[in-house]
Amino acid sequence: MLPASQDGQPKIEHHGLASDIHLTCTVCSASVVIPTSRKVSPQNKTHEVNILQALGEQNAGLAPAKVEKFLTTLGVNYTLYRSTISNLHKAVGKEIVAMAKESCANAVTMEALATKENGDFRDGVVQLHAAGALPPPGD
Fold first, then answer.
1. Segment 77-90, tens digit of pLDDT
2. Contacts of 9 (CB under 8 A, 6+ apart)
3. Over the stretch 25-76, which tens digit does the pLDDT of each residue have?
């Protein structure tokens, strides 16, 4: 296999941090494309590495411009449109919020069950036992 371009360099399509490297066989002229990152799904052209980048930026509290400068300093060929990264941030953010809401709902349910099992739940109401505020259950 040799590069698909005429000048001997591989033809590379950049998609943010992902790339598709195009090679052609010099014997049979068969072409192959080697992706450097999986796509989220066959119908979606978003690469997993770009979603992970958006998640990492949010997790670390970095703005896309700072990540771009960092990658440029490392010599990483990086081309991702600001609108694309903004859309990825929104999608990742929605998932983070959904996961947080689900986690909180589960925690509330677990707390309610634990309270009910410990006898601090009467007539559908959690009984508060602050010093002198309410008598303990059974009094």
1. 777 777 777 888 88
2. 3
3. 878 888 898 988 888 877 777 888 888 888 888 888 888 888 888 888 888 8
Report the alpha-carbon distance of residue 11 to residue 40 in Å, rounded. Answer: 23
Tokens 């559908």 found at: 124
33 class by beta-carbon count within 10 Å (0-12 exposed, 13-18 middle, 19+ buried): exposed
* pLDDT > 70 in the chain, percent: 78
In a domain, 24, yes or no: yes
Indicate the helix (H) or strand (E) that contains 60.
helix 48-60
Torsion-angle region of residue 134: left (phi > 0), alpha (psi -120 to 50) or beta? Answer: beta
Beta strands 39-41 and 18-24 are unpaired
Q: Contact, 102 vs 96, CB < 8 A?
A: no
Average pLDDT for 85-108: 88
- Contact indicator for 127, 135 with CB cutoff of 8 Å: no
Q: Is residue 89 part of a domain?
A: yes
Q: Is residue 63 part of a domain?
A: yes
Whether 135 maps to a domain, the answer reads: no
Helix axes 48-60 and 82-117, enclosed angle (nearest 10): 70
